[in-house]
Amino acid sequence: MQQQKSRRLLRSAALALGLFAGLAGAAQAADAIRIGSPLALTGALASEGAKQKLAYDLWLKRINAVGGIQVGDRKLPVELVTYDYQTDGKRAGQLAEKLITDDKVDFLTAPFGSGHTKITAAVAERYGVPIVAVASSEPVHDQGFRFLFGTLAPSSGLIDGMLDVFRKAKPDVKKIAILGRDDVFPKIMASLMAKGAEKAGLSVVYNELYPVGTMDHATAITSMKSAAPDWIYVTGYTADLVLVAKQMSDLGLKAPIVTMITGPAYKEFVDTLGPLAENITSASWWHYSAAYEGDDVFGTTKAFYDEVLAASGQEPDYVHASSAAALITLQKAIEKAGTLDREAVRKALTELDIKTFYGPIKFRADGLNDNRDLPIIQIQGGKPVVLAPAAIASAEMKLN
Amino acid sequence: MPTLSRPLRYAALAGWFALLAVTPFIADNYTVRVAITVAMYSALALSWNFIGGFAGYPSFSTAAFFGLGCYVGALSQRHGVPLVLAWLLATLFVTAFAAALGTIILRLKGHYFAIGSIAIVEVVRLVISSWGSLTGGGDGLNVPLLSGGPDRVASTVLYVMLGIMLLAFIATLLVDRSRLGFGLRCINQNEDAADMVGIDTTRYKILGYALSALFCGTVGAVYASWVGYIDPTDSFSILLTVKVPVMVLLGGAGTVFGPIVGAGLFVLLEEFFWANFLEWNRAILGGIIVFLIFFLPSGILKLDYRRLFRRKSPADRVEAA
């Protein structure tokens, strides 16, 4: 570590002196598997970045406790090389290149943000390095990249699930109001819902996007109020959703069903809103009450839950789980390929079909995880409960 | 930096330029990326220098021009325009945009102009972000990837960026020695007086503003082709719009070499602190900037240029900041 640090210092000094840094690059012996990860440790996505890092660290501890990953007839320990990309797209691309050329990592994981995933994936694609994303939706996978894989299931699965469950709980639901954040993932969740709701025979009485950084939703809320919807559906990140929920209460906007994507999946959302979070529904890619078993280092959902809780005092959400799953995916693919050759590991990833604590993982042609049965949750009594799928449901849906 | 004679300065610049240009042969792609970043910011800094340095108008619209360049370049490429033509188209569009905008916004002065120019970044970002049918809105846009392996892409982008930097430098030299440069400096010192002695201040300011946008447009378009994906948040980043003036101030505003010295130094410092002080790099960098602005208000080249150009009054320095 110290040696690495001093080499880095030396390297930067060389750089500052005149970009002669390349001369300091030392050859990397293949005595460990190196996985590179740009993380958003500061900036807008810092809280997600911290969760990602925590999950990575837990996985790393467990995998190295069993001696590492089996590569052919050798067992190699794993080294994670992480950097903070400061939630900055230019930095993310730069880091991906640094990790590949300078730190000589074998494989990459993508940062949390969708756009940043695309930027790093473009670099990885150029170098032919397999990269596993922890939070990527359909638009991230539309560039035909061969080396990009994502542990999340397609967003459309979330929409279909919610329509089924909510229409069963309230068969007379007719009018839906949709407010979405104009940003890759929240936007696709809004537009998919508009399409899905229309197909299901609902009338979309309000359908607008709000720009990134909106600090006041009063206009949107007032318009929605005059449309008197049965179902209010809002997408965004936690800070946006908390603001919308507060302003909805201030302005007296109510509906039998209120859905926020993906606020209630996060503990912070419930903690900040308190009673205002009650009965808000959401869908998520993963919830700790959906118990799975697998032959990964965690083994069961419960073991993962306990470990995250012990390490951070927080209940894990899909960010933790999906991040750990990304590394498990890489591990399984390396074991399957029996080599660190990137093309072979890529091929193993395309053929992967595994069961993990996170649920089944099997990639579609575009690299998304082809998983159905995504949990639909509701906040009841200050706790998230699972409404569907039936096999893991823990409560009945409550209407406002 | 000790005072260098003029030929020596050109020699130093040529050396720096050559050093950046040979990185693909002597160093890895990460270093090449740093060299690209240096060239890119040098071009942006040289651009800003026209309006912020020569004319002393504290413009914060760099990110607007850069982002527009990204989008025009990306959109034209997606509609079948060949690569280089798309870059030129972006350049033309952004320049025309700046010229048109300049006729309105350059009526503002001092702080009002600064705020107005920063608002432009926000407005353009919102327009691009809301115009989803054309720009993909918050989803961003995929840009056709440059063909070839990573080494080839890196060196291509590097030489294109270096080319833009060189053109921006030549433009700076020409402006510096022309009537336009003289006029802009007069405006910097006292706009009313300049107007009185027969300088067409409005025309000069618009020219300066348009020049400050021209290369930003090209850089944006090339950047878009390089990264392969753009979105409104990263293209119109406020950080970019603040960084570029800081670089110029660091090197010496209104000078010919200042922007290049400032951009190079800033990028390397940023790289150094970021690599070694992960947690504190922003704070350290901020501290250095504050220090430099306080103790070297006219930039690193201050000593060199004190005699060449008329010394600025303290009031002008504040305005330039």
From TrEMBL, chain A:
SUPFAM superfamilies: Periplasmic binding protein-like I (SSF53822). Keywords: Amino-acid transport, Signal, Transport. It comes from the Bacteria. Residues 33-382 form the Leucine-binding protein domain. InterPro entries: BCAA_transport, Leu-bd, Peripla_BP_I, TAT_signal. Residues 1-29 form the signal peptide. The keyword Nucleus does not apply. One of its GO terms (biological process) is amino acid transport. PANTHER family: ABC TRANSPORTER SUBSTRATE-BINDING PROTEIN (PTHR30483:SF37), LEUCINE-SPECIFIC-BINDING PROTEIN (PTHR30483). Belongs to the leucine-binding protein family. This is ABC transporter substrate-binding protein. The lineage of its organism: Bacteria, Pseudomonadati, Pseudomonadota, Alphaproteobacteria, Rhodospirillales.
From TrEMBL, chain B:
One of its GO terms (cellular component) is plasma membrane. One of its GO terms (molecular function) is branched-chain amino acid transmembrane transporter activity. It is a multi-pass membrane protein. It is found in: Cell membrane. The chain crosses the membrane at residues 7-26, 83-106, 113-133, 153-175, 206-226, 246-268, 280-301. InterPro entries: ABC_transp_permease, LivM-like. Pfam families: BPD_transp_2. Keywords: Cell membrane, Membrane, Transmembrane, Transmembrane helix. This is ABC transporter permease. It comes from Oceanibaculum pacificum.
